[in-house]
Design brief:
Blueprint lengths: L3 H9 L2 H10 L4 E2 H5 L6 H13 L3 E3 L7 E4 L2 H42 L8
Antiparallel strand pairs: 1-3, 2-3
Helix pairs in contact: 1-4, 1-5
GO molecular function: DNA-binding transcription factor activity
Pfam families: HTH_20
Protein name: Metalloregulator ArsR/SmtB family transcription factor
Length: 123
């Protein structure tokens, strides 16, 4: 059994599936319209759609001849929330690195001033 976040990231691992989600973010559309920009067969597009549907990222309906696909963004929100925890970690790490580099630059300027004699005190 795979958890929701694993299914979401697995589905997002493919650039075609990410492009399909980007298209569906604009609104509900048919499989034919989804397939139009891709140079691949309809069965290949259908396989991508099945992966997205299984991951809970899209829903597919049926209205006579029309089979609309719709984005379901809830799993993306869960993945985003999970990533947010690590974004905070990296921001804090970069802030500490920034402080260290600024302290290092100040020390280098102070040391360079001493070598040039400008750091000497006059009597």
């Amino acid at each position: 059994m795979t958890d929701q976040i694993s299914s979401t990231f697995s589905a997002l691992a493919d650039p075609t599936r990410r492009a399909i989600l980007a298209r569906l973010a604009l609104g509900e559309t048919s499989v034919t319209e989804i397939a139009a920009p891709f140079e691949m067969s309809m069965p290949a597009i259908s396989r991508h759609l099945k992966v997205l549907e299984k991951a809970g990222l899209i829903t597919r309906g049926r209205e006579a001849q029309w089979r609309p696909c719709k984005l379901k963004a809830e799993p993306l929100k869960q993945a985003s929330d999970w990533l947010e925890e690590y974004r905070n970690f990296w921001e804090q790490s970069f802030d500490r690195l920034d402080e260290y580099l600024k302290a290092l630059q100040k020390k280098e300027k102070r040391d360079a001033g001493k070598k040039n004699g400008s750091g000497r005190k006059r009597r």
